Amino acid sequence: MTALTPSSTRGLESHAIGMDAATAVAATLKALADPLRLRMLSAIATSPAAEVTVGELATLTEVSQPTVSHHLRVLRESGLLAADRRGTSVWYHIEPSCRGALNTLLDRFAPAAIGAVAAPHLTGLTNVEPALDHLAASLAERFPATPPSECVRVVRESYTALARRGGEPTHLVPLTEHFARQRIMDAERARALEAERPRPQVLFVCVANAGRSQLAAALMRHYAGDRVVVRSAGSAPASDVHANIRLLLEEMGDAAAADEVDDMTRFYPKPLTDDAVRAADVVVTMGCGDVCPVLPGTRYEDWLVGDPALASPAGVAAIRDELDERVRTLLAELLPEAA
User: Fold this and answer.
1) How many CA atoms lie within 13 A of 233 on its CB side?
2) Are 232 and 216 a contacting pair, CB within 8 Å?
3) Given this model, what pLDDT does residue 8 score?
4) Tell me, what CATH number does 331's domain have?
5) What is the band of 25 on the pLDDT scale with cuts at 50, 70, 90?
6) Predicted local distance difference test score (pLDDT) of residue 152
7) CB atoms < 10 A from the CB of 87, how many?
8) Which residue spans adopt a coiled-coil conformation according to this UniProt entry (predicted)?
9) Number of structural domains, the chain?
């Protein structure tokens, strides 16, 4: 191993986090390094009122209420939680300055830590150009209202976005075909909105498009069939759908309940695009913050729903039931005759 010279040491120092900052971050990570505290934070962050009491948090575990209070005190001292006393109860909520960071922890880092697997190297795709050219030509024939040059752009953008999020490389070309086709359809629909009133279109968005938005979209398709155009996307899509969500989707046993490409790639996370937002009548966000473009004339809803990727089996079932109720309520508003 080559020894570091003083100049290379100084170079590393310029890239490393400062000692004071590292000490502060390490103290916060130490406060987070407890399963019960993480469960408490996730429950508070996704509760409908965004605040809970000690008594409510005690239901998450069999430990005594004083033990729960101890963990809450640790989280408060670390600056992650704040509390308000109203009457005889103390209500805990996420410190506003930490909410974005905690959402990233729960929505992105935690699922990655649970399923930490090295992303496969994109081998076997060095000569993908002919396949993409053929795909763009095929889409240009199927969608004559879209210029061939636009089909080429969409195909290449779609391939790049899907390759960047990782996943099984052998599926990238068929996934690109499906995603590019969906984007072209959305763009054509957006251009036609001024001339006609087509079926309502709903876009479900979460961070990874691997859990909540996939399940909500599948439920909407299940109940609405072809009466509603359903899309889902992620602001930072994962490489694959969470395993527990995939089981729920496949248990539905409904071909209309998923984006079908083939038997191996029926469900896959998709990047959020402006075309999808422009084509939607309703955009439902779940934990993705303010990354979704806000367009005039589009209805937006934010559903505060827990992340099924991190939930227990009972928690996954409860999330599924909550999404089911919300989806049926939205469908009844879009199609009153379906109520």
Assistant:
1) 25
2) yes
3) 47
4) 3.40.50.2300
5) confident
6) 92
7) 6
8) none
9) 3
* Helix, strand, coil fractions of the chain, as percent rounded to 5: 55, 10, 35
The SS3 of residue 282 is strand
Residues 6+ apart with CB under 8 A from 157: none
Fill in the DSSP letter of residue 242.
-
pTM of the model: 0.58
Q: Check whether residue 68 and residue 158 sit in a common domain.
A: no
Say what the alpha-carbon torsion angle 251, 257, 263, 268 is, to the nearest 10 degrees.
Answer: -100
Strand order in the sheet with 52-53: 52-53, 89-94, 81-86
Rama region for 209: left / alpha / beta (φ>0; ψ in -120 to 50; rest): left
Q: What is the CA radius of gyration of the chain?
A: 23
Please say whether the beta carbons of 174 and 262 come within 8 A.
yes
**What local confidence, expressed as pLDDT, does residue 262 receive?**
41
Residues 6+ apart with CB under 8 A from 244: 308, 309, 311, 313, 316
CATH number of the domain enclosing 150: 1.10.8
Domain enclosing residue 287, as ranges? 199-339
Q: Does the pLDDT value for residue 327 go beyond 90? A: yes
pLDDT at 145 exceeding the cut of 50: yes
Alpha-carbon distance of 151 to 141, in angstroms, equals 10
CA nearest neighbour of 210 among 182, 231, 230, 233 = 233
Q: Given this model, what pLDDT does residue 328 score?
A: 95
246 vs 198, residue with greater confidence: 246
